[in-house]
Amino acid sequence: MVTVRNWQDVDPYVGHETAIIWPIFRAESEADKTRNHEDDALFITRGISGFTRHLMQPGKSGDYHDHEKIEQVYYIVSGQGKMKLDGEIYPIRPGDTVHIPPKVKHQLINDGEDWIEHLLVSAPVR
Predict the structure, then answer these.
(1) Checking CA distances to 104, which of 28, 69, 86, 121 falls within 20 to 30 Å?
(2) Residue 59 CB partners (closer than 8 Å, separation 6+)
(3) What are the Cα distances from residue 28, in Å, to 22, 58, 101, 126?
């Protein structure tokens, strides 16, 4: 089955302290962990655990965290800032793609004047 979803049709939530997150797709195994089964089209992926759109306002930073068994890819759509990766700071700008292996501590830092928009793909690593 093919599924087409628009982020504008998804209810966002706040996560990682300051990011506004639109969960576009989640792993079908995650459907059992939520009480809200109203959006069955959300829980369809098998190889990735999530595909989300994030926005972070200027002057904010997310929490500094890692994932034990998940790798992530951030794609920066708009805005500029920094990513803290295992203690090192890297500048980010539109078009940058950042791969974060499991157990790498990471944090998005918006020290710019505009919102940072990024797409985030998460996948379990066995």
Answers:
(1) 28
(2) 110, 111
(3) 17, 34, 22, 17
Partners of 15 in the β-ladder: 19
pLDDT value of residue 32: 60
Mean pLDDT on 80-91 = 96
User: Do residues 110 and 58 touch, judged by C-beta distance below 8 A?
Assistant: yes
Which of 15-19, 57-61, 86-90 has the lowest average pLDDT? 15-19
Q: What contacts 57, CB < 8 A, 6 or more positions away?
A: 18, 110, 115
Place of tokens 């068994």: 69
With a CB cutoff of 8 Å and minimum separation 6, the contacts of 75 are: 96, 97, 118, 119, 120, 121
Give every strand in the sheet of 106-109, ordered side by side.
88-92, 81-85, 106-109
Report whether pLDDT(3) > 80. Answer: no
User: 121, 23, 13: which is closest to 67 by C-alpha?
Assistant: 121
Structure tokens at 91: 């500048």
Mean pLDDT taken over the chain: 88
How far is residue 56's CA from residue 113's CA, in Å, rounded to a whole number?
11
